[in-house]
Amino acid sequence: MARQNGTASAPGAGGREPLEVVAAAIVREGRLLVVSKEAAPDVFYLPGGKPDPGEGPLETLVRELDEELGVEPLEPRLLASVDSVAALEGLPMRLTVYEARVDGTPRPAAELADLRWISGREGGIRLSPALRDHVLPLLRRRGTLPA
User: Fold this and answer.
1) What is the rounded CA–CA span in Å between residue 96 and residue 76?
2) Is the Cβ–Cβ distance between 65 and 47 less than 8 Å?
3) pLDDT tens digits, residue range 7-30?
4) Cβ-based neighbours of 141, under 8 Å, separated by 6 or more
5) Which of 12, 63, 88, 119 is the 20 to 30 Å CA partner of 129?
């Protein structure tokens, strides 16, 4: 469940704290940037990652986009926080998503295997649950991606 500019709640799994993840929704010309990781090259996610100890969400976003793509987010704005399941770990996850532009051309680095610009309507591409079930529908409702 997602709520624009807020949080969404879902039942916890055994009382464990969810993984905290920060990611960017970067849209250019009606296409969303998604990335895959070397650990699971067939699953695509939003670029981002887990915070380091003591790191705030925006600090995490800046660090992760630099490490993974060699870009800096411009004018990041909170899009939503969603509760979902982490595709790789299979654990409960709280994903904080920022809409942002970036300062250059993203290129996969660090643990990334690939990147793609998608409409979200492509067949044959496996998307993470949070992206598929929460972020894409939200971006379509807002008119950021074509319906």
Assistant:
1) 12
2) yes
3) 333 434 456 789 999 999 999 999
4) none
5) 63
